[in-house]
Amino acid sequence: MTYRQDFDVHPPLDYEGYKSTALRHPKQPLIALPHAFTEITGPLLGEGRLGRLDHDLTRQHDAEPLGQRIIVHGRVLDSDGRPVPQTLLEIWQANASGRYQHVVDNWPAPLDPNFTGLGRTLTDSDGRYRFTTIKPGAYPWKNHYNAWRPAHIHFSLFGRAFTQRLVTQMYFPDDPLFPYDPIFNSVPDEKARQRMISRFDLESTQPDWALAFEFDIVLRGREATPFESEVDDE
Amino acid sequence: MTTPSQTVGPYLAIGLTWADGAFVAPAGTPGGFWIRGRLTDGNGDAVPDGLIETWQADPSGRFDHPDDPRGAAAPSIDGFRGFGRSATDADGEWGVYTFKPGRVPGVDGDLQAPHIDVSVFARGMLQRVVTRIYFADEPSNESDAVLASVPSAARATLLAQPSDDGYRFDIRLQGDGETAFFAL
């Protein structure tokens, strides 16, 4: 068994528009790593990693955070369309004014004492997940003159194999900052970029309470090409 | 079509650090050791906003995972997780507390030398990069097919060197002594 590569989808390691890549990408060609036992397995991290309110970022403090409550939900699938069950999702994000709860983030937007911006959950047996949180704000960064990041939520996923590990960002529909953001536009293919944008989901909104956005995440699929000689010949 | 990768950004410590992240095996388990290293960029400067993740077999060369073609095996050490996660500090230093993995079969059924798969994430990296830790004092390195596929000039970058409390494995993202990285 191996996991299918998806060369056309991911951004290059060296991308001129995103300046910080310049000194942080290998210049030597990458060497092909065959998918053997270490690569087709991976950490299966379960309930033990979850705190009671990790899935609801609006209830982790004494009072409610400021901002617009949203439900973010979707499915984790592999590229063969199979759900990825019981896999850990980790998210982190800025608050409603676009500021992170982090010592290095010091742009003059208010911090919210009732919002940390950290969430975790597991997918269910059908690959479904769900968070309640606050819609993050856009924020400026120093990449170029008048640079602003579109609102986004960072997602981290393990899948079930080392090869399926993915860190990505979820964006919101119709953000006017998309054309100007080098991180979003580092993904070369338009259709692939669309896969990072969540969908407004009226059906899942909660009346008088929260908006809802649906975001499906697709990890690498499996190819059933068996090892040349399965296991060793003991 | 898969979902594209994006950078972890500078604030990954909010979402990707755990109090027990560094412990591939429980703290203080006898026989364990530290693998420590420094993550540096093309200027040789520390990367203070990086994250190292490791994945490995247990000392008997097994994984507690159903997709191991030999079947899932309970770890030979209580509480062994196989997985380590360490953010880099202001000096780019990281570390995981672990055990030397046993030998596991490669794609041709040959036994590989003990190795640990490594993912490197950081602000400024749109995708993780992947490398492998081998152990400099391990005789089976001589016959390892993956090591043999690495250009000889770069092979030494994959060898963790014995140190005071375990091994040292520096990772250079670019330039002189650039670590050998793999395509998965």
From TrEMBL, chain A:
Intradiol ring-cleavage dioxygenases domain residues: 72-100
Which molecular function GO terms apply here? ferric iron binding; protocatechuate 3,4-dioxygenase activity
Quick check: keyword DNA-binding in the entry? Answer: no
Q: Does the keyword Oxidoreductase apply?
A: yes
Keywords annotated in UniProt: Dioxygenase, Oxidoreductase
Q: Which family does it belong to?
A: Belongs to the intradiol ring-cleavage dioxygenase family.
Query: PANTHER family from the entry?
Result: DIOXYGENASE, PUTATIVE (AFU_ORTHOLOGUE AFUA_2G02910)-RELATED (PTHR33711), INTRADIOL RING-CLEAVAGE DIOXYGENASES DOMAIN-CONTAINING PROTEIN (PTHR33711:SF10)
Spell out the protein name for this chain. Protocatechuate 3,4-dioxygenase subunit beta
Protein's organism: Cryptosporangium phraense
From TrEMBL, chain B:
Which terms are listed as keywords in the entry? Dioxygenase, Oxidoreductase
Q: Which residues form the Intradiol ring-cleavage dioxygenases domain?
A: 33-175
Q: Is the keyword Oxidoreductase assigned to this protein? A: yes
What is the top EC class of this enzyme, as a single word?
A: oxidoreductase
Enzyme Commission number, as recorded: 1.13.11.3
Pfam families per the UniProt record, alphabetical: Dioxygenase_C (PF00775)
Task: Report the SUPFAM superfamilies cross-referenced here.
Answer: Aromatic compound dioxygenase
Q: Which InterPro entries match?
A: Intradiol_dOase_C (IPR000627), Intradiol_dOase_core (IPR015889), Intradiol_RC_Dioxygenase (IPR050770), Protocat_dOase_a (IPR012786)
Molecular functions per Gene Ontology: ferric iron binding; protocatechuate 3,4-dioxygenase activity
CDD domains to which the protein is assigned, alphabetical: 3_4-PCD_alpha
- Matching PANTHER family: DIOXYGENASE, PUTATIVE (AFU_ORTHOLOGUE AFUA_2G02910)-RELATED, PROTOCATECHUATE 3,4-DIOXYGENASE ALPHA CHAIN
NCBIfam families according to UniProt = protocat_alph (TIGR02423)
Protein family (similarity comment): Belongs to the intradiol ring-cleavage dioxygenase family.
Query: Would you tell me the protein name for this molecule?
Result: Protocatechuate 3,4-dioxygenase subunit alpha
